[in-house]
Amino acid sequence: MSSKGLPFLGEFELGAAFPMATFRAPRGVQDILPQSAPVWVRLQSTARAICERYGFAFIETPTFEEAALFVRGVGAETDIVQKEMYTFEDRGGVQLTLRPEFTAGIMRAYIEHGMHTWPQPVKLYSLGPAFRYERPQAGRFRQFHQFNVEAIGEQDPLVDAEVILLMWRYLQELGFDRLSLQLNSIGCPACRPPYVEALKSYYSGLRTSLCPDCQERLHRNPLRLLDCKAAACRALLQEAPRSVDFLCPSCASHFQELRLLLEAAELPYELNPRLVRGLDYYTKTVFEIWAEGIGAQNAVCGGGRYDGLAEALGFRPTPGVGAAAGLERLLMLLQCHEQAERPSAPLAVFIPLAGPARPLSLKLAEELRLAGLPAQCTYGNRSLKAQLKSADRLGAQYAIILGEDELAHGRATVRCLGRSEQVQVPLAQLVDWLQEQAAVPAGERAVQ
């Protein structure tokens, strides 16, 4: 086999010996290890359950799309397109991009598959990875996973309220109890130009006080000035014009009704006139949900309305609203407050000490598994002491010892790990006995 056509191999030839190396995950990504898996699975299962209650259906879109989709959808002047996208040319010469966010791809699927003919709005959710080349820090990675919801095809502010409520309830069910909803409206293409001009006028006399990036944004996209995290730029925000003061009657009415709906649902919110989002497709409603006590980056969810996205992608005007939460950040926050969990501790571990006991151990373990109870077997020819130690480290409640004496008498020696207790149980009754023990609260289990 030749390395021809594989330029990424560089100086290495396939078939040649590679130099010895210790490989590590690339910068900005992480492994979800078994001790984190229970929380990771709960983040996703809770998302699926709450979406069912709110009538959102699951959609899976590709992890890469044509690069132009994000340039047109997200915005050519955004930091995501300018600095953060992973773009490459495939062997057919097509420019492709690993998705930096979900909404543009889901809108592409909505258009491509004729979802505009379905009952509107079409309510969808996704769970999966996205990719941005940005500076890694706590809870922020270059490959990250999102819980994403979209409601496409309806501009009623009631849809905005339901999306916000869904994400709020999701975070509550995960255990977050000190939440703050930050709410703003950034208007629409009809009323935004006067606001943008007011921003330019305000910042033009302060240009030298802005960070280098914001000096460029002042000419390219003044709204991005409100999203800068640099301390000097944040200080200038206090006197900056507010978008809510420039809303047209339609946007003002939409925002007022949304506020009334949230108040009717008894969902508290704070008006945040400095809140914008980092993508150009947002119109009208923008929001973030903050969790208190987690440092400067306290946003755990964000979203808003994007009534102009479909048009940017060449389709007819189609309203939409959505939100997303980063799972890695939620995982980090939950693990700060919860003890790491053992992955799937077995009820029983079978220890075969004689050759004929190996198939019997597997048979009995499988019967327990089919009954819905976790069970494992030990492997190899280690000593009983070593195998008992392994069973204990797995977190098992019982060790089932099967040696020559046990087989000869048709019984198993059941040792209650963590206690100096053991009992003999007939093999024919063992699975039933273990099922009875499983019905007893773990702290009250004992051999008898």
Tell me about the largest β-sheet: 8 strands, mixed
Overall, the morphology is: elongated
Broad structural category:
alpha+beta
Task: Specify Rg, calculated over alpha carbons.
Answer: 29 Å
Distance between the termini: 64 Å
Q: Would you count the extended β strands for me?
A: 16
DSSP strand (E) fraction? Answer: 15-25%
Please tell me the overall pLDDT.
Answer: 89
Low-confidence stretches: none
| Helical stretch tally | 15
Strand order, sheet with most strands: 1-5-6-11-10-9-7-8
Percent in helix = 25-40%
Main attributes?
five-stranded mixed beta sheet, 16 strands, 15 helices, alpha+beta, 448 residues
Account of the 3D structure:
This protein has 448 residues and is of the alpha+beta class. The chain is built from 15 helices and 16 strands. The termini are far apart.
Secondary-structure blueprint of this entry?
Layout: H1 37-54, E1 57-58, E2 64-66, H2 67-74, H3 79-84, E3 86-89, E4 95-98, H4 103-112, E5 122-131, E6 143-152, H5 157-174, E7 179-185, H6 192-204, H7 212-220, H8 231-236, H9 249-264, E8 270-271, E9 283-291, E10 299-305, H10 309-312, E11 320-326, H11 327-337, E12 348-352, H12 357-370, E13 375-377, H13 384-393, E14 398-402, H14 404-409, E15 411-416, E16 421-426, H15 430-438
Helix pairs in contact: 1-5, 1-11, 5-9
